[in-house]
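Q: Please design a sequence for this.
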């Protein structure tokens, strides 16, 4: 499939994501949350402007303590916390796009819901309106 799509050619840009099907552990709402989280990674890997915005969130908007708390959260799931790109990418996926307490809540990283809302709002407002509309991205 990757070859048919041309994603294996030099200079190709694409992302392949996968999500689980509905099961005893994964209901439709959970699957939607997972899809949104994974789609944010797809955008990260295909849109340089989104990468820049994510790095701004990670390096400039989050405090050192918040970055460390996110690292701790991700370390618990086995992520390589020395990989800054991975930390920024996962940080944006959880903070901005994972809206289900079964997977992520600001309290899991010692962050208040108000602070999370401010960060999410700042991030989403920085996305060009056309891109927000095309992905139906909003703060809800």
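A: Design:
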């Amino acid at each position: 499939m990757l070859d048919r799509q041309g994603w294996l050619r030099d200079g190709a840009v694409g992302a392949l994501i996968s999500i689980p099907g509905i099961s005893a552990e994964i209901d439709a709402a959970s699957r939607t949350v997972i899809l949104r989280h994974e789609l944010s990674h797809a955008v990260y890997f295909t849109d340089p402007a989104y990468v820049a915005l994510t790095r701004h969130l990670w390096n400039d908007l989050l405090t050192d303590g918040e970055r460390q708390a996110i690292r701790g959260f991700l370390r618990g799931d086995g992520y390589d916390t020395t990989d800054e790109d991975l930390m920024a990418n996962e940080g944006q996926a959880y903070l901005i796009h994972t809206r289900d307490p079964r997977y992520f809540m600001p309290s899991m990283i010692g962050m208040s819901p108000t602070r999370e809302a401010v960060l999410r709002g700042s991030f989403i407002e920085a996305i060009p309106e056309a891109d927000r509309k095309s992905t139906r991205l909003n703060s809800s």
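Q: Thanks. Anything notable?
A: The first helix runs from residue 2 to 5. Helices lie at 2-5, 28-46, 48-61, 64-75, 84-97, 113-126, 129-134.
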